[in-house]
Amino acid sequence: MVVLNKIYTRTGDKGDTALGNGTRVPKYADRVNAYGTVDEVNATVGMARLHASGDVDAQLARIQNDLFDLGADLCRPDMANDAKAEYPPLRMSDAQVDRLEQEIDAMTQAVEPLRSFVLPGGSALSAHLHLCRTVSRRAERLCVELAAAEDVNPAATKYLNRLSDWFFQASRIANDDGRDDVLWVPGANR
């Protein structure tokens, strides 16, 4: 259980921060950028939830919890020593990826196939979900970049890859199952 009885610590005043294993790194480190952007995704999901209800809101709540799991995973480097850790680190699982895939498949069945690219917009919820999609894509790029240099749980990058697809399909559901999608018209304003 986490107990936060003091919010500021002053330990980062010189531009460094502690990872989950206690290692201090610059605040601009690739790992900090990756999990910081995951936190940003979570904030955009919170904004989207202001416009969501029912099953979509429940799914978004699960995603927010998953995103905290993902941040916890990314802030703990040195996966090779997981078994020796005093407190085993929380790692993303393939089951979390599988759940997203199942939800994407269900949403795909509810919408007509696309015949054009979709512009972000339509309903307020759809527009917010498109913002979630683009920020999650950035988080994925940063996570993949981190994985090129350091150990990263493969389920973490898979989750981010599926998550942006989830947001895309959910944005279509939020636009009356795609009927109110705003479609791109190539060269319309030439």
Short structural description:
Helices cover 55% and strands 5% of the residues. The protein is mainly alpha-helical and 190 residues long.
Q: How does this model look, in words?
A:
The chain has one domain: Cobalamin adenosyltransferase-like (Hypothetical Protein Ta1238, Chain: A, Up-down Bundle). Helices cover 55% and strands 5% of the residues. A two-stranded antiparallel ribbon has the order 1-2. A two-stranded antiparallel sheet has the order 3-4. Helix 1 packs antiparallel against helix 2, helix 1 runs antiparallel to helix 4 and helix 4 packs antiparallel against helix 5. The model has no long low-confidence stretch (mean pLDDT 93). InterPro entries: CblAdoTrfase-like, CblAdoTrfase-like_sf, PduO-typ. GO terms for molecular function: corrinoid adenosyltransferase activity. Pfam families: Cob_adeno_trans (PF01923). Keywords: ATP-binding, Cobalamin biosynthesis, Nucleotide-binding, Transferase.
